[in-house]
Design brief:
6-stranded mixed beta sheet, 4-stranded antiparallel beta sheet, 7 helices, about 35% strand, elongated, XRE family transcriptional regulator
Length: about 325
């Protein structure tokens, strides 16, 4: 039995687009509009499904001021998919993709990774007046890591695809942590595409560098942005792995490690970890490309935890 009036062609087109690309609050607002339901009626239908959500909360959700996170709220989202006649998990999928937000602050480097210095990262971000919620969801990330002739981490390049989930976003915080013994004061950050370098903060004891990347435009909620930057390192000794941590689910992640022809590893492997404190899982050997001396992994949709590539030397 239908809960609402049929959607118009225009509303249906907007809804289809929002369900494909999000963000969550835009899709929810379009779905409610397409069905012609006032929020009081939506709340009534939720009550009939055994879920209690206030009209104010529903309003915040469709404005993007808040996101459903608690178990009861996620039950409400599942019920909304049925009430609004949406494909199963279409709204939940957008919430999951929206989880991979913030910045590079979840990234890990070396065995310690940034998971070993969360207070340091937060302090440096605070010095840059960077909010906890940076206002973007990471839809895709491609990293290329270079290992130099001394077997050192020479540098890395990151290509981000992000979508703003609120108005006014104009910057991004990139976090890099070098291998043990590195010198952040000698590292440099280069803005390569669709951004420019801003302020930089360093913490020598932990090897952490935080750099501000400024966009040339202010993003509105729903806008996408592509940008690319690089960090030149080369300040530590022999490197053995590169890892990146995600504090929530995200979009596609690709990691490529390229070795100097004068320093080829004996073997390479990929692995995952649920957290920085957890043991390694899912080890898989990787074949080194003969021409480009590189290995890579691709995660179509990242889950919470750590993705890494490790290598052994003769």
């Amino acid at each position: 039995m239908s809960h609402a009036t049929p959607q118009t062609d225009g509303a249906g087109t907007e809804l289809d687009s929002a369900l494909r690309g999000g963000p969550f609050h835009v899709a929810l607002r379009a779905a409610i509009a397409a069905r012609g339901l006032p929020l009081q009626r939506v709340q009534h239908h939720l009550t009939r499904h055994g879920v209690k959500v206030g009209v104010t909360s529903l309003s915040y959700w469709q404005q993007g001021a808040r996101r459903p996170q608690r178990p009861e709220s996620l039950r409400a989202v599942r019920a909304l998919e049925e009430i609004l006649q949406l494909p199963q998990e279409s709204l939940l999928r957008l919430l999951t993709e929206a989880g991979g937000h913030l910045s590079d602050r979840a990234a890990g480097r070396s065995r310690r990774g940034c998971g070993a210095a969360p207070g340091v990262v937060e302090r440096l971000l605070a010095e840059l007046e960077h909010p906890r919620d940076a206002g973007v969801h990471v839809l895709g990330l491609h990293e290329r890591v270079r290992i130099g002739p001394r077997r050192e981490l020479a540098g890395r390049e990151a290509h981000h695809i992000v979508r703003a989930h609120r108005d006014g976003v104009d910057r991004f915080a990139a976090v890099h942590q070098g291998d043990p013994g590195c010198a952040p004061e000698r590292m440099t950050v280069h803005a390569l595409e669709n951004c420019r370098a801003g302020r930089v903060r360093r913490h020598p004891e932990s090897g952490v560098l935080v750099a501000e990347l400024l966009f040339d435009t202010r993003l509105a909620a729903g806008d996408t942005h592509l940008f690319r930057y690089a960090v030149e390192d080369g300040t530590a000794g022999v490197s053995h792995e590169y890892v990146r941590g995600f504090d929530a689910a995200a979009g596609q992640y690709a990691l490529e490690v390229r070795f100097d022809a004068a320093a080829l590893p004996a073997g390479c492997h990929r692995y995952t970890r649920p957290s920085f404190a957890a043991p390694r899982e899912g080890r898989q050997e990787l074949s080194l490309s003969r021409r480009h001396h590189s290995v890579h992994v691709v995660e179509p949709r990242v889950r919470t935890g750590i993705v890494g590539i490790g290598w052994d030397w003769d």
